[in-house]
Amino acid sequence: MRLEIIPVLGMPEVRPGHDLSRLLMAAVRSSGIHLEDHDVVVVTQKVVSKAEGRMVPVGEGGKAAWVERETVRVVARRGDLVIAQTRHGFVCANAGVDASNVPDGFVTLLPEDPDGSARRIKAAMEAATGRELAVIVTDTFGRPWRHGLVNVAIGCAGLPALVDLRGTQDAGGRPLEVSVVALADEIAAASGPVMGKAEGVPAAVVRGLRAEGPPLPASALVRLGDEDLFPYSPVSEPLQ
Amino acid sequence: MRLEIIPVLGMPEVRPGHDLSRLLMAAVRSSGIHLEDHDVVVVTQKVVSKAEGRMVPVGEGGKAAWVERETVRVVARRGDLVIAQTRHGFVCANAGVDASNVPDGFVTLLPEDPDGSARRIKAAMEAATGRELAVIVTDTFGRPWRHGLVNVAIGCAGLPALVDLRGTQDAGGRPLEVSVVALADEIAAASGPVMGKAEGVPAAVVRGLRAEGPPLPASALVRLGDEDLFPYSPVSEPLQ
User: Fold this and answer.
1) Separation of alpha carbons B218 and A237, rounded Å
2) Which residues of A touch B185 (CB under 8 A)?
3) Pairwise CB contact (< 8 Å): A147 & B162
4) For residues B158 and B92, what is the distance between their CA atoms, to the nearest angstrom?
5) Whole-angstrom distance, CA of residue B204 vs CA of residue B105
6) Which of A77, A100, B67, B76 could form a disulfide with A229 if both were Cys (CB 3.0 to 4.6 A apart)?
7) Nearest chain B residue (CA) to A171
8) Contacts of A101 in chain B (CB under 8 A)
9) Euclidean distance between CA atoms B29 and B125, whole angstroms
């Protein structure tokens, strides 16, 4: 398997009510990309949120009021940094509320249903091209214990967000020990360097992926409840 | 920027004392890859550890004894799962001790100095090719709050493991809010689908990357101490 990560260039500024799939199709074509079966279209949360009306005026409460509205549970807090669980179950800085690549006085919120967004974009782009596609919606998340942000999948359609290799064998015929791979997160991360936060490239096409197993949405990536070993931070400022 | 992720096929079983760079060069050539300036050679911890003599007999204490020896600090524990900080500062399952893709009765430990491993492989492959290369050594880590493993960088030479975009502007001319990107982790993750745990492909070449900024080792990715909001789990079994 050999992958190509191709930037989708020339996307216009996306505004509420815009038909994002149509804009993506036009930009894909003008980038010289001819979509093929199994291509994965990766698109940032930012333009999905803008198109879906999830760009909002900051208002009197400031960004913090929006962070509070988007937060189901505060996991850690220190100074201006709030690590919060969103209603989707994602744990990330500021519950996904972000002011970069947004006009002054506005912030974006995460899409209401990023898996649904991915499914809709997939359906529209498949109808336009006749190709079987997959779509991943990304955001950039920090990690405990590691500096820097990485692109992760918050929405996924048409491919398995998780690939379960349990029961398969390694190259020597022994069972694999740890073997559930977050494929959608790896594809999202692969697109990160191509999309670049500063470069205004909100989408990319990943070509060459052959994924085994049934499609699985990004919601399957959420690990909370009994499986969550870090439901709150023991050393952050008092949780509210 | 357009990336290609090319698998390095035909690597033989790596044994202690093998010259890993020489084996990689031969496999790169037999895979039909002609290395170019700025190519990133990505190689799994598993073969680096084997070549460096970090494959050890399990012995009487079992794998658990090796996990304990490799652990500087237990961060969380539940049942058989130990999430531990290694002496490098990585926080991962079993302190990086792993039995997959290893002969029966053995486990691998993480390389003593994965950044040093990356530097040595880089120097040897550059000497053999006359090209300017970068090298990333990877392992697969789990994440709190997200299911599945992703490939991450534990060693890095010749490229910035972190790219600091603070002070740069977004496409609209506004300063970027969150803007330190874990580039080495994104490149490691990009290689994950190509390498595949079950497929015996322990290396890949990433072509097309243009990274800005001075080289920075993977040790720069470590976030611990005062910056660590999750120094221990509040809900795991009692820490030892």
Assistant:
1) 29
2) 146, 148, 150, 189
3) yes
4) 25
5) 28
6) B76
7) B200
8) 170-172, 174
9) 12
CB A187 within 8 A of CB A153: yes
CB of A72 within 8 Å of a chain B CB? The answer is no
Task: Answer left, alpha or beta for residue B116, where phi above 0 means left and psi between -120 and 50 means alpha.
Answer: alpha
Let me know: does A143 contact B91? Beta carbons within 8 Å. Answer: no
What ipTM score was computed for the predicted complex, to two decimals?
0.95
Rounded distance between C-alpha atoms, residue B135 and residue B126, angstroms: 10
Q: Which residues of chain A have pLDDT under 70?
A: 170-172, 174-178, 197-199, 239-240
Residues 98-137 of A with CB under 8 A from B: 98-104
Strands in B158-221 per DSSP E:
163-164, 180-181, 203-207
Rounded to an integer, what distance in angstroms lies between the CA atom of residue A114 and that of residue A120?
Answer: 10
Question: Which residues in B lie closer than 8 A to residue A6 (C-beta atoms)?
Answer: 2
> How does pLDDT run across A155-205, given as a tens digit for each residue?
999 999 999 887 777 666 766 665 899 999 999 999 999 997 656 799 999
Q: Which two tokens stand for residue A198?
A: 């500063």
Task: Give, for all 240 residues of chain B, the pLDDT tens digit.
Answer: 899 999 999 999 999 989 999 999 999 999 999 999 999 999 999 999 999 999 999 999 999 999 999 999 999 999 888 999 999 999 999 999 998 888 889 999 999 999 999 999 999 999 999 999 999 999 999 999 999 999 999 999 999 999 988 777 766 676 666 589 999 999 999 999 999 765 679 999 999 999 888 999 999 999 999 999 999 999 998 765
CB contact B185 to A (< 8 Å):
yes
Q: Taking a C-beta distance cutoff of 8 angstroms, is the pair B126, B170 a contact?
A: no
Which of the 8 DSSP states describes residue A93? E
CB contact under 8 A, A223 and B146: yes
C-alpha–C-alpha distance, residues A93 and A85, integer Å: 9
User: B202, B44 in Cβ contact below 8 A?
Assistant: yes
Q: What share of chain A is helix, strand, coil (3-state, %, to 5)?
A: 30, 30, 45
Contacts of A71 (CB under 8 A, 6+ apart): A82, A84, A85, A86, A95
For chain A positions 20-59, those within 8 Å of chain B (CB to CB) are none
CA distance A162 to A183: 5
